[in-house]
Amino acid sequence: MDAENSAYIEQLYRTHYRALYVLAYAILQDRPSAEAAVQEGFVVACRKIGDLRHSEDPLRWLKSTVRHRALHILEERRRTATLFTSLADLAPGVEPAALDSTDFEVVELCKGAVSESELALFLRIAKGETTFPEEAVRQGIQLPACYKRFERIRDRLQKALGER
């Protein structure tokens, strides 16, 4: 990005950050997620600087982009909530400390239920190190296939822990 476009984006950021943050927060009800939505909105603005500059109303363009990013985060949250099983459902009566990831027995149990690459995929998403869309790109698969793969891994892990 050239210096002129960089200065333009910086000026928009300084001028409109608060309004964009308030918009994202109203949707997400979470400070870190609202900040992330605004940041992601500006990343899109940097990538599509021509569209932004040719827009009749740059603030409206930014609001639309940030709203879209916030709704995407909200949808990702909703989908993740439906995919993840609570610890109480996953391993009834087991204390969280008993499922510490450093526990050799649990790690071996999980490795016996799924492949190491499947376990790595599951843990990357479960720990929040990656998102479903990012993982779909990494795996070279469509997003719905990534969700389905995650569900199958989760179900096999749940079964293995339930049999424990």
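The record above closes out task 2.4. Task 2.5 opens with a second protein, given below.
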Amino acid sequence: MPRGSAELTNARREEIISACEQLYQTMSFKEITLKDIAGATSFTRTSIYNYFQTKEEIFLALMQKEYERWTEALDDITASYTTLSAEAFSSALAQTLEKRGMLLKLLSMNHFDMEENSRPECLRAFKRAYGASIEAVRRCLVRFFPDMDARAQRDFLYAFLPFLYGLYPYTTVSRKQRDAMAEAGLDFVYMSVYDMAHNCIRALLGRQ
């Protein structure tokens, strides 16, 4: 790690993560290189190695940031309401996901390779952010569904969290994919992130 203030270190890390985020808007994970990321920052590619050793670590840090943003949105729900019906909560939770398109896109990636190519300290920081988001969802369940016991909370989380990994590819479809679906004769109903998430959450709560 380079010498300097903690503020400078954090600022450099944030600049790298932001550059990666911008590139990922128009390029795929495979296309993006450390050279590309460095080119979108104010310093050299060599300097990036002072903060991240692999491209996967940068993407993991970006996903950590997205989980932190989502956790804030979840905590806003519990702070803003004392009671919510299942319908209202399903809508509120779906809205938080509708605003986290980058998180959903990152979730659709191959996490195994990303985590395997990151140092343990990077992986631990990411897992802490991920765990915080799980606890934020659990806090929502405790607040708005007090009759839901620990087993029911776990069942909800273990169904809802894996569901998130498929939201992006199901709701973000290219023209090429649409054409292939039509030519294959598949009667596929295209839905928004909000609609698909809302339906899933409402169905999971209805099982309780």
